[in-house]
Amino acid sequence: MAIKDDLVTGALLGTEHQALPEISVGGQLGELIARLSAQVPQLSRERLLLQLASLLALYQRAGKVLPVNDGDELSICEELKLPSVSAKSSRHLKSILQDNESLLAEWLAAVARAKKRVSEECLPELLEYCLKQTRLQELVSQVADSRGRWLARYNPDWNYLLARTGPALDLDNARQLWETGNVGDRCRLLASLRVTDAALARELVMSTWAEDPADQRVEFLDAFSTGLSIEDEDFLEKKALDDKRKEVRQRAVALLARIPGSGLSERMKERLFSCLVIKGMFGKNLEVSLPEACDKSMARDGINPKQFDSRMGEKAGWLCQMVGLVNPSVWRERFSCSPSELIQMAAKTEWSLPLLIGWVEAARLHRDETWVSVLVLQTDTAAAESLVQILPPDRREEVVAEYLRKNDSWQAFTGAKYDHRLLSMFQALSHTWSEQFSRLIVKSVDQLLSRDKQAVLFGAVTSRIATSLTPLLVDEVAASWQRFINENHASKSLLESALSTLSLRKEMHDALLE
Amino acid sequence: MPSYSEKQILALAPDQSSQKSGAELAAARKWVSLGNDARAAWGECQGSGKLPYQTCIDLSEPAFKCTCPSRKFPCKHGLGLFLLVAKEPAAFAQGSPPAWVTEWLSGRQQRAEKKTKSRDDAAAEISDRAAQARRQAERQAKIESGLSQLERWLQDRMRQGLAGLQLQSYSFWEEVAARLVDAQAPGVARLIRQCAELASGGDGWQERLFDRFGQIYLLIEAFKRLDQLSPETQSDVRAAIGITVSQEDLLKEQGVRDLWLIMAQRVNQEDRLKVQRTWLRGQHTARWALVLSFAHGMQPLDVSLVPGFTLEAELVFFPGAHQLRALVKSRGNSWQTLTDIQVSEDSEQALDEYSAAIARNPWLETCPMAINQVVPIRDKAAGWFLQDQIKNLIPLTVAGNVGWQMMAISGGRPLSVVGEYDGCAFLPLSAVTGDQYFRLDERG
């Protein structure tokens, strides 16, 4: 409004510095202004200005004209396919997002299992929260339904939903996205293509390899774990293995070592076979000879000639690195003996430490479940926690249960006996436990607490039980723990807080089944 | 039985630790006995004492009673029991209350009756009418002198120019406001205090401050000739200055009975004072009402008006030319979910109603507004809007992710939105689509 702008400018400078602007406007407003102005000079200029201010502010508020949309119309979201969760479940989600974040993955998985969707009003908060929770994004895209994808078209931050659930890309679109997308887009494209068309994914990476910065090359190679095959060897061996950046070379080595029959894995096996030999007609003995030198070809294949480890010498370090790359399953064929026999033979040699550390690395790299269980249960390797994480949930439970039986380590839960390995493995049991395993743990905790009224469980133990125990047992556990609580057991407050998490989880699951 | 959400119940807790311990007691296994009827819920909870604590809630208010020695109110037992009512109604045995519950309930009833009676007595006892008139005249004189000082101050600002005000500190405005508080004009003090924010609010501050000075000046002029104005406008001027009306007297008047739809609610934090604004609309009378609830510090806010529900009630309106603010005089217990709202068809109709309202009371700060068939849209540069049926764009003030929430609810399809309009932008508070009511919450 032009007159008002003039008046505001006038007021900004002040009447002592500048005369009031001339106002000429027609209609009723003009008449009103004329009537007010006619009172001057009885009315001071300042008061006139204030009166005009009150008049025009109201005039403007009362006569507001809205802009009209002459641009694009909003698209309409396609029909929602899944039924929404109940209002009660939405309340659970809100309270989880506000102060029980550790339960989010479980809740989302339960919603997906129940074939339901998150109610629409909760989507923005959930999508925003999961921006940084990459491991939850897959689950979120399952329960966000068409409404989530529709929203993501308007909020680019949320397009992690699009890449996962969007229609399969045709070749041209894939190429275009690869050439023009940002790192996140490209990594997501690569991840989904490695599942459906690993060759195309490799071809795309190769098409821009020379121009891509080293950081991105590292991320691209990470995607190769999926759909890895001998067809990837040529690229990895010829391009990536000689890269300038160390991280790129290391990833190429790990990938090539995992491809059965690749040049690198064969070369490494040959080198190692000459170092490890079994001799003796009756009692078998492992004879170890350390590599004499680390030549250029070994270094190219990923053995760091200068790697320092205070627990072993230089040559033992090379042996350790070599063992770590070779698939541990080859030893059964080579020596016709089981992993535990081999570990026992190694223990009698002077080089048992480098061999053991190497086998831990190898079990991890090749995700060999047999070796993982043997290493966890029969050696005292410190890497137990990261090893059990390799196993699928049911095997994980078996190994931990076996460990508990074998070492009788229950008292580690209260610190009456110190067992760091058990506690760290227990922390790795972050999935929802089977009923059988849940019962085992509950029973043992009951025994521990009944035996000693002063026993205080570790908080980490009770909170792991609270978040992982199967919700099927909540009522039973509540009944049995109530006894300890009533008799003022030393673990009372820990049990109470674990029970309240457990009942929240039960309520959460029940609400989804209604 | 009114249904309260867990969130509302937790809002009653005097502090964080009560919230937590209340939530822990919201488990059936913590209670020796549990029961309820249409009006009340009760339970016995084993604490550290020999006998279990007896806890009871009058659900119609809600009001609490517990035999535990805690000084907190409501105590954790009351909160836990209340949460349990909301969470697991099946855990409660239906039936007639035990003696200790009925005793308390009838005691409450008697006290309530006595209070109304003593209120009547007190009113009758104002014997010294002369003293009252004297006090009023004193206050009138104080306000007059405060406002005439303020008028001179405003004129000085206009003479010297507004340019320097942007850089003034908070205390500059506070000093002017404090003089108005002394002059017993707290409403005007608030208008001045808010200038600190207007002046430092970035682009367009000059015009906002200019408008505000105009608004205050209009109030000063109106007060000068109060006796020439209509009784309704006199009330509006007094309310804007901050002269309160006795709520007790007001409650004696005949109210408006209707089925009230509880359309929207929001809570403002003003220093240590929480102000809850609840917007209701009469189903038959088609009029809006604003019910305020105040709470200092950690005190709980009134939770008896639940947005998204309807309520049979008699409301008494504060006097004025455009009556909005009201008190609940009496209420029934009918609670139905709100699904259908009768509101403006488009922005033109809504803005016409707004213009008519400020024509009656030019000091109205915000007006309730509800518009049908709008689609929330976002312009990357200009922000959030509601587009109505005639493609007009209503600019929005959105806090947190409220814009995205509306968009998620709509999915590109039209919905009805309820909120407040201040002459410049619309603040959305709730949305209705099909048979669902959504409260738009800053936190999501």
Q: How would you portray this structure in words?
A:
The complex is a heterodimer of chains A (514) and B (444). Chain A is mostly helical. Chain A has helices at 2-13, 27-37, 45-62, 87-99, 104-113, 123-129, 134-143, 145-154, 160-165, 171-180, 183-196, 198-208, 214-223, 233-238, 246-258, 263-273, 296-300, 314-325, 330-335, 339-347, 352-365, 369-378, 384-388, 393-407, 420-427, 435-451, 459-468, 474-486, 492-513; strands at residues 276-279, 285-288. In chain A, strands 1-2 form a two-stranded antiparallel sheet. In chain A, helix 11 packs antiparallel against helix 12, helix 21 (352-365) crosses helix 22 (369-378) and helix 26 packs parallel to helix 28 (474-486). The longest helix of chain A is centred in the C-terminal third of the chain and has 22 residues, at 492-513. Chain A is extended and about 125 Å long. The model of chain A has no long low-confidence stretch (mean pLDDT 89). Chain B has 444 residues and is of the alpha+beta class. Helix content of chain B is 39%, strand content 26%. Chain B contains 13 helices and 17 strands. Chain B has helices at residues 6-11, 16-25, 76-87, 99-124, 129-160, 170-182, 186-193, 195-200, 205-224, 231-241, 247-251, 347-360, 402-410; strands spanning 31-36, 40-45, 53-58, 63-66, 93-94, 256-270, 273-282, 288-296, 309-317, 326-331, 336-337, 367-379, 383-387, 393-395, 415-421, 426-433, 436-439. In chain B, strands 6, 7, 8, 9, 10 and 11 form a 6-stranded antiparallel β-sheet that branches. A 6-stranded antiparallel β-sheet of chain B has the order 14-13-12-15-16-17. The longest helix of chain B is centred in the N-terminal third of the chain and has 32 residues, at 129-160. Chains A and B meet through helix 1, helix 3, helix 4, helix 6 and helix 8 of A and helix 5, helix 9, helix 12, strand 12 and strand 14 of B.
